[in-house]
Amino acid sequence: MASALMDFYDIDMNKHSIFLSTRGCQVFSYSLHLGSATSSPSFFFYANRFLVQKLSSFTSSGPRPFPDYSPQKPSIKDSELVHHISTTLKQRRSEHLHRTMKPFESKFRPDHLIWVLMNIKNDYRLVLDFFDWSCLRRDPSLEVRCIVIQIAIAAKDSAMAYRLIHDYWTKPNLDVNLSFSYFLEKLIYTYKDWGSSPDVFDIFFRVLVEVGILENARKFFDKMLNYGLVLSVDSCNFYLSRLSNSTHGIQKVLRTYDELSQVGVCWNTASYNTMIHCLCQINKVKEAHNLLLKMEFRGCAPDVISYSTVIDGYSKAGELKFVLKIIEAMQVKGLKPNAFTFNSIILILCKAGKVLDAEKILREMIHQGVDPDNVVYTTLIDGFCKTGNISAAYRLFDEMQNQKVFPDYVVYTSLIYGLCRTGKVVEADKLFQEMLRRGLEVDEVTYTTLIDGYCKAGEIQFAFSLHNQMVRRGLTPNVVTYSALADGLCKQGELDAANELLHEMREKGLELNIFTYNSLINGFCKAGNILQAVNLMQDLEVAGIRPDTYTYTTLMDAYCKSGELIRAHELLREMLNKGLQPTVVTFNVLMNGFCMSGMLEDGEKLLQWMLEKGVMPNVATYNSLMKQYSIRKNMRAATQIYRIMCGQGVLPDGNTYNILIRGHCKARNMKEAWFLHREMVEKGFSLAVDTYLALIKCFIKKKKYFEARELFEEMRREGLHGDQELYGIFLDILYKEGDMNSTLELCDESIENCLVNKISGGIT
């Protein structure tokens, strides 16, 4: 029954200010009587008890009455003048008010203004004209302003009342606390006889909130409770939304929500949405979800914003299963996702690496008539770049421009990162130059991304050139920038230069952190100087910086690649003893070590152990095993690993397809290789040059020259080159066909790519 009462209370009163007075009880009881056909006697009992409790919660003697208006009485002489002015004003036709009032100007005093308003208050347009005329002569008193505000509310002109209140509270050099007390006193004093509409207090409250006088707004709310008045839920919602932007705002919102609930504010869907948003902001997503579930029991139907906010909260927390659960609940309610909902779903799918599923959501979004914005495309492009699927990222990049959604610097930076990650630094630099031509913002992140790309590609001179350009533009290289440069120097074997860079960083006041040290340790390991890397790790600990999982994983990787698996295992035990949790990358390092050493059984045991311990392997884990089985031409085992991977929901990447295609070609399983090739192309992945060579040579062995030639031409169009053997095969074919022009052209290409490059490489 209590919940039924709350439902009624919310639905019937949530749009209005509520008087908790004897009259209010009578009106509410009458409303209940109208619904007696569907209400039980016990419902009336709970309803009456509820109102009595609300009434007694303010004062033991009931709400305080509003005062009667009692201005100073006019003298007989003033009464005659006021009557004369009032009569003249009412009889005025098209004559300008200034001309009408001219005979009375010399005798007119501020006191006369209120007395005249008493006589003309039923003619609203005349009141406004008269008030404007008086304002031209001198500023009206606060009492007069409040009277006109009350008349405006009574005339249903809320906009005028709002302007009159707002103009007062935005005056320069206003003493807020003194003005608040004085204004509130006059507003209450003029209420009963001039307007008697609680809307005036709602508007005053909203103005206080809007101009940021939140403390006084709360005092005003509490003051109104003494008069038995609870401000409207819309005003309270506005107060909560502004409160959330203040210092310690969210905690204040949660506390205020509870306090206002106890004094009779009947929250609506917008109120709950604000609370859900606040809870999500402080990472209390489960509490937000619980509030969403409770809404209907409190008489409020959740809307698409309610669900979308919780979906966004779970998305940011990476809770995919809860996101899917809430989407299902939305569908049951018949609510269609909006752009914000779709954005959140796409975000969490991309975070989980399910970028293809995220793109399906994009297609569904467009199908439902919801236009994707820059954020959606940016999220997807970034997701594809992080999975190495650059062709899919470029496809979306072109699509968004066709849809007149213009890419910003974040999109370009994501593409530059993706290209650098896949070793396509030249293309990344072209994109960077395009950014500059378009006048897009190029910040430290963009520069550092490209610098890191050049460093990883071994183009250290280009990297330092970009660093210098960055400084000339007034941008300050940060620790990440220098870490990338140090890493690049280490990869080039310039370890002394890397150490000098460390000193330069310290001189510039940059505080070396774990990332800087990790970059250098990684550089030393890549250069094959494991001893120096271990010494640097010891220096790191002396400096008071604890090695992290990445530090240990880097050293373990170096030991695995040098065949020192025992030392790698010792580091793993040391890492666990220090309370550091290995990541999937740590296990991938061990997996790669097992596979490179030919210990495939140990690799499979490690995979099984990971699954049992709930450590989800990624695509790199499975690729290591598949690669070694493919090298051994054991495609049955490689295919089994592939099926296990797909069964675990891990999607294959471009490397997976290249490994399997090459393996099937070596095993002469042409049918399987070609099927995987088609699937790979459909998913937007590109063939590596070794995979092209394997497929083409396999076709030639099967005497399928047409297919081989088509693939060879495709490879050349992609800017990839064959080996000397392949060029020789196609030169023979073209020569036998009598196509001398094509033969000579291919001969030139063969000399350039096989002989010239080989000679220049040897000289270098």
UniProtKB/TrEMBL annotation:
PPR repeat intervals: 268-302, 303-337, 338-372, 373-407, 408-442, 443-477, 478-512, 513-547, 548-582, 583-617, 618-652, 653-687, 688-722
UniProt entry keywords in alphabetical sequence: Repeat
Record-stated family: Belongs to the PPR family. P subfamily.
PANTHER family noted in UniProt: PENTATRICOPEPTIDE REPEAT-CONTAINING PROTEIN GUN1, CHLOROPLASTIC, PPR_LONG DOMAIN-CONTAINING PROTEIN
Protein name in the entry: Pentatricopeptide repeat-containing protein
Species this chain originates from: Cinchona calisaya
